[in-house]
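User: What would this chain look like folded?
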Amino acid sequence: MTYVRLSVSGWVCALAACLAAGAVPAQQAPARIVSPEIQANGDVTFRLRAPNAAAAAVTSGGDIPGVPFGGGLAMEPNAEGVWEVTLPAVDGGAYRYRYDVDGVSTLDPGNPAVSESNNQPWSLFHVEGAAFMDTAEVPHGAVSEVTYYSETLGRHRRMHVYTPPGYGRGEDTYPVLYLLHGAGDSDDSWSTVGRAGFILDNLIASGGATPMVVVMPHGHTGPSGRGGADGPANAFVEEFAADIKPHVEANYRVRTDRADTAVAGLSMGGAQALDVSMTDLDEYAYIGVFSSGIFSVDQDDSWRERHRTTLDDASLREGLEWIWFATGRDDFLLDTTEASVELLRGHGFDVTYRETDGGHTWINWRRYLNTFAAELFRGDPTAEP
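Assistant: Here's the prediction, encoded as structure tokens.
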């Protein structure tokens, strides 16, 4: 048997000869798909290579103008089997989407950016043009994924924590904002689609906010991650007091006095923020409720009875700097917000309520965070959204 050793150049020549003779079938990789493609004028083009699909559409959770909630934006295929659609003039912001391909929901395989929710990930894109949350040439803080053990729930859990620029280089202590997400989302949501880190970076750089630590925990507590039907409705409030807040205070340089502690949330998280704060009101100076309120406030009196002692103790309102509600005129929880504000005012609380444009979307919640965070830890806030 005779062995022939080829040099590298020899292998290349031999392979080229085989290809030319047709001995090895040539496979040309398909051209790369750019998706989403964001133009300077804000147009966004979505693409998906699916030559065997019968139908494809872009879907969203209702946050992308022009993509209906519960429906989708139909895509059209070209001759190469690439489906495409362009959404014109998308306003600056962050947006989540998925593809529906023949009834199957999937991420955009051409886009590595994702935002987690409680049940599924979303593809994510960001359009420049909203200065308060754009990525700017300013000092940036850090957002960390933090694993901790919840004694209350008997398992490991995760939170995201924002630390301001310079945190890792010094020994200063900071005030703390606990920032809660809405139903169906997760601890990842505020720092991805919510742009919380960039909002705080820009505020702090401009002198528009006090440097602070922002803690973004996971609000669903049941076996599948959710609360409610598969977990006690008050489990998060118990876990917050017993596990989340103590973990943060033991592991981060945060101030623990009332004047330097705030809690806020959107939708489900807004209701949780009210429960958390009213359970231990002497620990919170600032409370923010975005597109939310006391759920079932018009149907039963259980919330009022659960917090009766706090509501009736006027001394607990001393040192409470701000309760701030904001909800859009088109939000389905507008009536809940208004009834909740009325209930708290009826018990002597000085509540600031702002009704804004828009509905139950991240478009509003990012703006609310920008307004709320700017007034924290300054005393006597009066901000408009």
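The mean pLDDT is 90. If you want, I can go into more detail on any region.
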